[in-house]
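This entry is retained here.
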Amino acid sequence: MAALQTMRDQIVHLSPAGFYVALRVGFSFPEEQLNELPENWVEFYTTRGLVVHDPVMKWVYGNLGASRMSDITLPDPHQIRAKAIAFGLNYGAVISVMTPADRGRRSYGLFFRDDRDFVDPDLSVLHGIVKQLHSGNVEERNLTAAEVEALRMQASGLRLKQIAGELTISESAVKARLNNAKRKLGAKTLAQASSIAASRRLI
């Protein structure tokens, strides 16, 4: 837990305008993600389906290593970089990590500043962090047995009131367990938390 928090603190320090890290992305969801991008940018980007036109994402899936977004020369006909700048994401860096043993599962990170461009030492630190997170050689944020149980019951279709009744605890206690599980798994929604937990055979 301490190692993960230290890495997160380093990422926050190096990318104060926001960041997104997706770990071990297969054919669907990442196993884990850290999303600290501005909510208004996430909504703008997702509702317009910009991911399929984003040259940065094309770079992620065509390259390994680290780059400043300003150094990416792929066409950007939808002006996604200019749109990001309008949301305060003035300077960006991108990391893409995968090894031959990963069977196509890749991790990547998008990092943003509003004050200056990323320098080589920044890229080196961020690349090292994403590589370490990708490998999984970091202290696990273990779910408690109670959190696993609540998440399993929720994933099976039970409502909060039903879970509370089964466990003889309050609905707020169930919510707390589910929210803790979601946070530890780096998920944005309970559905995603369940998917991540299932992929790790936790539920």
